[in-house]
Amino acid sequence: MSSKLVNWAAALFLLVLTTAPALAAKPAPQPVMRLHFANPTYDYELKRAMSYAVSGGADINECLIVAQAITPGDGDSWYRAWHQMAQKLDRMAAQALKAGHRQTARESWLRACNYYRSAEFFLHGNPKDPRILSSWGASRRCFRQAAKLMDHPVEVISIPYEGHQLPGYLVKPDASPKPRKTLILQTGFDGTGEELYMDVAWYAIERGYNVLIFEGPGQGGALRQEHLYFRPDWEKVVTPVVDYALTRPELDPKRLALMGLSMGGYLAPRAAAFEHRLAALVANPGEIDMMEGNRPSKKEWAEMKKDPAATNQALRAQMKRDIGFRWLINNGMFTTGTKTPLAFLEFFSRFRLSDKVVAQIKCPTLVVAGAGDHFSSAALQSLLYDKLTAPKALLRFGPDSPARQHCQVGGLLLGNAKIFDWLDQVLR
User: What is the mean pLDDT of residues 167-182?
Assistant: First the structure.
């Protein structure tokens, strides 16, 4: 494999996958404040966990105490620190509930849910590591324990899908059977349904929305329990979700919106191009091609595939040198079921929206772009907006905005306010 292609392969993963933390110590499109770690991957993930303090999923000093016990690049130290804090809160919640302190129990379990989720983040290089399933399972258990103690209904649901069940939640402002506007909510490359409650759903119910959260192939329990992997034709996933939504009388069939976060900025628009029962679409951020700006030529593909062993060796060498790159490849293989870095790259090249597909999107669409998104750019994220023929709006968080980072991490109050202001108007 030529040095040119080695560099190209590294650059491809470092620059274009808008689904994950920062992948190399390179300047962001706009300067982003460092919170604790010099390594941008670890710092972003710390900020991500801490962002849920507003919705009850974190406490600031708990997160900073965890950070002090972590060595960047050492996934075991990351796991131990977050897992120990989660266990502490898990025990506290159980004791509080036994003593009749329901609110303390709920709050503690919600934070434990977030910390257990964070704990397994850097373990995916070995998909058989038992800590992945146990930590994720503890995260889900803690959320469901907390949900039983919430003031609003949180129903555990299962959605039929090609002989399997997609896990999810139906979150409502109250128990009223009155049909309401509903947000169908999905994550991206590495999130969970439980995280989506803290990220978006908590804000939505405050505004009177029902929220139908689901995990599709490659995500959360659909991956870890059903062993379903990502697929580019995401309409095959969302259509069964809409079918399910239409069986629920409390969901207004004329006011169903779909929002996709992170890699969901590709997945949700792809689905909306073929699923026309949606009243609105939010792509956060917009993503038209997972290799936009770095798609190899046929000649480059041929050279890389001519000697796959050499190509994979070069990619693995890059993984040893770069923390974020290593995580991305490992998580990519984990969520797609591919066995080598090159196989992941080939599979991921299929995640691309043609102009013809974009033209099939009919519902009003909000495209989000962030000037501080540290592994994409507002210009690339705006390409989806440029190509849309449906009614559309562009929500751009500029270089001075607190919500300028990927998926508005660190600025969720502002980010959700702007998104729901738009949805309120469209679904009125």
Answer: 96
Q: For the chain, list the domains and their CATH numbers.
A: 3-27+299-348 (no CATH), 32-150 (1.20.1440.110), 152-298+352-428 (3.40.50.1820)
pTM here is 0.92
- Sequence-distant (6+) residues with CB within 8 A of 226 are 164, 165, 166, 217
Distances in whole angstroms, Cα of residue 71 to Cα of each of 36, 323, 384: 11, 12, 38
Query: Angle, nearest 10°, between helix axes 102-119 and 130-147?
Result: 160
Q: Considering only CA atoms, which of 88, 112, 280 is closest in space to residue 184? A: 280
Query: What is residue 21's predicted lDDT score, i.e. its pLDDT?
Result: 32
Active-site positions?
A: 262
**Contact yes or no for 319/329 (Cβ under 8 A):** yes
Residue keyed to tokens 């300028």:
404
What would you report as the CA-atom Rg of the chain, rounded to the nearest whole angstrom? 21
pLDDT higher than 80, residue 158: yes
Give the model confidence (pLDDT) of 259-296 as tens digits: 999 999 999 999 999 999 999 999 999 999 887 766 77
363-408 pLDDT, tens digit each: 999 999 999 887 788 888 999 999 999 999 999 999 999 999 999 9
Higher pLDDT, 344 or 374: 344
Neighbour-count burial of 421, counting CB atoms closer than 10 A to its CB (0-12 exposed, 13-18 middle, 19+ buried):
exposed
Report the amino acid identity of residue 164.
Answer: H
In 99-165, where does DSSP find H-type helix?
Answer: 102-119, 130-147
Q: Are residues 336 and 347 in contact, defined by beta-carbon separation less than 8 angstroms?
A: yes
The DSSP call for residue 296 is: P
**Predicted local distance difference test score (pLDDT) of residue 333:** 97
Cα separation of 385 and 180, whole Å? 28
What is the per-residue pLDDT for 166? 98
Ordered alpha helix ranges (H), 191-251 = 193-196, 202-206, 220-224, 235-245
Spatial separation of the C-alpha atoms in residues 104 and 109, rounded to whole Å: 9
